[in-house]
Amino acid sequence: MSEIREVVIIGSGPAGYTAALYTARAQLRPLLFGSSIFVGGSLTTTTEVENFPGFPEGVDGPVLMENMRAQAEKFGAEVIDDDIVSVDLTGDIKLLTDSVGTVHRAKTVIIATGSGYRKLGLPNEDELSGRGVSWCATCDGFFFRDRDIVVVGGGDTAMEEATFLTRFAKSVTVVHRRSTLRASKVMQDRAFADDKISFAFDSEIAEIKDTGGILGGVVLRDVFTGATRDLDVTGLFIAIGHDPRTELFTGQVELDGEGYIQVDSPPRAPTCPACSRPATSSTTPTAKPSPPSAPAPPRPWTPSATSPPAARHRPNRRPLPSLPEQHSQAGPTGTSGRPRRRSRTSRHR
């Protein structure tokens, strides 16, 4: 067995790297397990991230994740690109086993496993993965140059995928089972303004056609009438949401019916002693943040040695001016006969 670490983090997305940065600056020497394949989380498959603070011109997802990792490592975080395959969170010392069988011990575990692509659940979906069916436009869009493509979904991810795919495709059809999109206004406007994008509202994919081991088209079904029609496409991109990657913690922490980790609020700690708050996309989605969101610093918390005490954040602050005295009819001494104190309001918290 390895030494007992103060903190071990599972997951290498924005939440995992942020937790690594905070705990490293707190001199807790965190150990982070990313992934043997999917290092950096879902943002590594994103083109331009526009809603992460500090980047007014946007930033590429892979670049953002590389920078977050480098920043965490700068302060002493240790990052291992391997998978944790089993955990035992029942004792005071948590046990985590990696893919080669090494057991790692930790006083606190931070869960930042995020979520994975949701599937349609149709026959041929898995069999044709990489052969016309995809969940990542930035990964596979180049291979669909001058082809007709269908994108399934109505949220921001679907609109981003559809807009990105117009760089390569001859046409893109967005299939959504409702009559209106769920995407943000700015993402809708971009999609509606693109001449290559058309929409099939109130529709769903009923069948994925296999033609010689590759995608040969799809069958659309009207959700109200049940009428079907063929759509001749050679590319199917699925963007209907995500499911939490929490299978590893079944029986270890409390999960809801959809697999999200149940947390107590406040504080946002899972129902497991010494398990720190998990990443937002792994917890019950009462209010889902945008994908690049990061968690609050884990508890218990130790401030950095370089952080000034709270009482000294503004040592050169000038004293606040006195407020004018309030005189009543009884005179400046008030009813008690003692001089009335000058009132001073302090904004220091």
Automatic annotation (TrEMBL):
Domain FAD/NAD(P)-binding: 6-266
GO molecular function (one): thioredoxin-disulfide reductase (NADPH) activity
Protein keywords: Disulfide bond, FAD, Flavoprotein, Oxidoreductase, Redox-active center
Residue segments, region Disordered: 260-349
Regions of compositional bias (Low complexity) in chain numbering: 273-287
One of the Pfam families matching this protein, by short name: Pyr_redox_2
Feature: compositional bias, Pro residues: 288-301
Record field: catalytic activity: [thioredoxin]-dithiol + NADP(+) = [thioredoxin]-disulfide + NADPH + H(+)
Biased composition, class Basic residues, residue ranges: 338-349
Protein name: Thioredoxin-disulfide reductase
Species in which this protein is naturally found: Streptomyces azureus
